[in-house]
Structure formats: structure tokens, C-alpha cells
Design brief:
Length: about 90
């Protein structure tokens, strides 16, 4: 009887890292994207606050959102593929 009661905590310890990985999916892929965007937009000798600078930052935001949407779409498609095409040994 004692042997069965130890299986659950061991299984929980093995599964916990996988569940934590699911929670981290929505984290930003780049730690400090704002600094990178600022450096990128200033590389063309554009003053901060000018219309060109604002347009550059908006373009960078749009590019980042599109990349995140593509990554989410790929993840969803992979999950659907795995559900619809299970591997049978």
C-alpha cells in the first residue's frame, strides 16, 4: 500500500516542468525589444520624436506582432496536425 502512495508525488514532479512550460508560452521572445527598436530607428540619424522616428517604431511594433502571430499560428497548426494524425506504433 505504501508503494502506491509514492507514485503520485513522483509523477507530479516529472510533469510539473512540462506544465510550467505551457504557462511561459506568452512571454516576450526578446527581453529588451524597446532598446533594440530605439537603436534601430536612430541608426538612420533620425531624431527621437520626429514623424520618421514614430513611423519607424510603429513599423517595428507591427513586424513584432506579425512574427508573434505567425509563431502562434504555427503552434496551433502543429497541435491540430498532431491531434488529427496520431502516430500508432
Amino acid at each position: 500500500m505504501r508503494r502506491n502512495s509514492t507514485r503520485f508525488p513522483i509523477a507530479l514532479l516529472l510533469i510539473a516542468p512540462l506544465l510550467v512550460g505551457c504557462l511561459e508560452r506568452r512571454s516576450a521572445p526578446v527581453a529588451d525589444a524597446a532598446g533594440d527598436d530605439d537603436a534601430f530607428c536612430r541608426a538612420n540619424n533620425v531624431q527621437q520624436g520626429s514623424p520618421e522616428y514614430v513611423a519607424c517604431r510603429k513599423d517595428r511594433d507591427v513586424q513584432r506582432q506579425q512574427a508573434e502571430a505567425r509563431a502562434d499560428r504555427r503552434q496551433r497548426n502543429l497541435g491540430e496536425y498532431m491531434l488529427n494524425n496520431p502516430v500508432r506504433p
